[in-house]
Amino acid sequence: MNDQNSFKGKLGNYSFIETLDGSVTLHSDFFDENFHNLKGAYEETFFTYINGSKLSRMFEDQNLASFSLLEVGFGMGLGLYAVDKYLNDKYLNDKYLNDKFLNDRPLSQKIHFHFVSFEIDGELISWQIENDQQMKNHYSPTSLPKLSEWHKEELKIQNESFVFYKVEKEISPHLVFSGILLIGDGRKVLQPWFRQNSSWPKFHAIFQDAFSPKKNPDLWTVEWFKELYQLSAKEVILSTYSSATAIRRSMFEAKWNVLNQKAFAHKKAMTVATIDELTLGPMSEDLKLKIENTPIPAYRDQDQSEFVKARDKKMQSN
Fold this sequence. Notes:
four-stranded antiparallel beta sheet, 12 helices
């Protein structure tokens, strides 16, 4: 299946695993979790994020000339690969170009697709770039830029500096892709980057694809969802595989409109959230009462300090 079955990153070892739909995922020794559902890594990603965030609305809205997507945790690039495959299958074909762009849009009008993600383990990204040939067998885009095409740069803010990758590419005569991949803890790099790049559009879709709340709690806190709220457009849809009551309470306390949806494969439910109730409808009274009355607390930053210290110590030791 692979030329190499495992490799080492800043957060320990990663091992390839084939899932039931034939696509592969990675297992992280540090988090002791797989990156994706073993029922199907690609199918889960498509179901939860492409469908969950209703990505089609951004391409089919004739009044929307620019939109922005945040993927929480780049991982092995499956989210971006799923977007690429979706674009190729549905939008980057002659029929769509003829029916939609040539008839409904001026030839001069371009859609600008902005993508932002972050990855705490920079070695995971470096490995993928250095092993580009192996990644072609898994999740290498065909229309969107491959990781090897992204340019490495450095952002200096006061006394700190962050590495990031950026790229811009014309995908078709009507679609321009701009990508930013920040290396580091998303809680530390996302806001500073936005402060330095205030012209970047607010998010219309968020793939909340962090490791599970129990294993990666600082990306499921009230404070984190407040940060995402501030960085999002009114029309945003946030989608995630988790339906845990604690994370729904975190979203609710951060003023998100929380909705229950059917999940991929054997799971009963997943969660989507919006800012504007008009986007997908209001939160159900049953779910609102459940969240308001549950004894289960929301995740909060103040409770995650020991986890963050242990993770940072692990990275420094490697």
